[in-house]
Design brief:
- This protein has nine helices and no strands.
- The model has no long low-confidence stretch (mean pLDDT 92).
- Helix 2 (39-48) packs across helix 6.
- It has one domain.
- By secondary structure, the protein is mainly α.
């Protein structure tokens, strides 16, 4: 029989890895290197700080690998609540992983451009900043597609947490609201070319943070007792 507290701790550690590597690659590094509306300055930053950019690529790979394992650990913890919903949760989460990993090719293409720009044998004039900007835009589009699944799995996850009886119902509600945030932004950016100018995407983008950080810390620090889980499952 699976030790529920062990499963909770493993899930918490995996979630922490996802959060930390995701924040580094999706928030910190872009904030340091990317200059909105200025491809030339962005490419200059990427060239000057190539190691940091490559670290973000490695961090993304670690993030997606941990995210592939996370729902499997959560499944062991939550399948007594509703095994079918737990299986749907796993499928929706894991579907995002190949999308995210293949999407990294765009960043590898940018790294290749950086290498070409530094090559002393280059004799033809090439607009590297514009090409790099195009690849980075492609990367952002790939991330947008992945967010649909990042949102949908949270609906199942939040439902299971809410129904569990051994995890806080509030965290279940926050996780389901996180689904709403991801899906609304996915639809907004997909359907409206000027969605970013509406000023709402940042607010919807914050919705997943509360639930995901909360459940990560709860699993890691509080865990789950076998007695509480057994009582809830029996009920």
């Amino acid at each position: 029989m699976t030790n529920p507290n062990r499963a909770a701790r493993i899930a918490g550690l995996l979630y922490l890895a996802v959060v930390l590597t995701g924040m580094f690659s999706l928030a910190y590094v872009p904030g340091q290197l990317f200059v909105k509306g200025d491809p030339a300055k962005t490419f200059a930053n990427l060239t000057a700080h190539e190691t940091l950019f490559r670290l973000s690529m490695a961090s993304s790979a670690i993030c997606y690998t941990a995210f592939a394992l996370l729902p499997l650990a959560l499944y062991q913890l939550l399948k007594p609540v509703d095994e079918f919903v737990a299986k749907v949760m796993v499928v929706l989460a894991i579907l995002s992983v190949p999308i995210s990993l293949l999407n990294l090719q765009s960043k590898y293409a940018v790294a290749d451009l950086i290498g070409l720009a530094k090559s002393p044998s280059l004799t033809t004039a090439t607009d590297f900043p514009a090409q790099a900007r195009l690849y980075l835009d492609h990367y952002d589009n790939g991330i947008l597609i992945a967010t649909l699944f990042w949102g949908l799995w949270l609906l199942q996850f939040g439902y299971l947490v809410f129904r569990s009886g051994f995890l806080p119902k509030l965290l279940g509600v926050l996780l389901m609201l996180g689904c709403l945030g991801y899906v609304v932004n996915f639809l907004g950016f997909t359907l409206a070319a000027d969605y970013s100018s509406w000023g709402v995407s940042a607010y919807f983008g914050l919705l997943p943070s509360a639930g995901e950080l909360g459940i990560c810390l709860w699993l890691l620090l509080a865990g789950v007792s076998a007695k509480a889980r057994g009582t809830a499952a029996a009920g």
